[in-house]
Design brief:
The chain crosses the membrane at residues 7-28, 40-61, 73-94. Keywords: Membrane, Transmembrane, Transmembrane helix. This protein has helices at 5-29, 37-60, 64-96. With 97 residues, it is mainly α.
């Protein structure tokens, strides 16, 4: 299958920025008090940040076994954070409509 760490690092760093934009816009518009949106966005920020860190470690480590372990954990964290950001987007969409 190949090394997925570079793809995880790229995607998670981009989505980390998107999550931070959501949190910032919530604080500015003061919507976060009435929804769980900021919690989902916060969890996704942490997930994407840790996923970035682990995928970077997977790229830089010399041990193949450790690299695979870091990549697998980063992959699962990325998926979890992606699920949280999708929930946040759904909540924003429902709140706007």
């Amino acid at each position: 299958m190949g090394n997925k760490s570079t793809h995880i690092l790229n995607a998670s760093s981009n989505l980390l920025g998107f999550s931070l934009v959501i949190i910032t816009s919530l604080k500015i518009s003061k919507i976060s008090q009435s929804t769980h949106l900021d919690e989902f966005a916060g969890i996704s920020c942490l997930g994407f940040a840790i996923s970035c860190f682990l995928s970077f470690l997977a790229i830089r480590t010399k041990s193949e076994k450790r690299s695979e372990k870091f990549e697998k954990i980063a992959d699962y964290l990325f998926l979890t954070a992606l699920f949280c950001i999708v929930l946040a987007v759904i909540i924003v969409t429902i709140k706007i409509i």
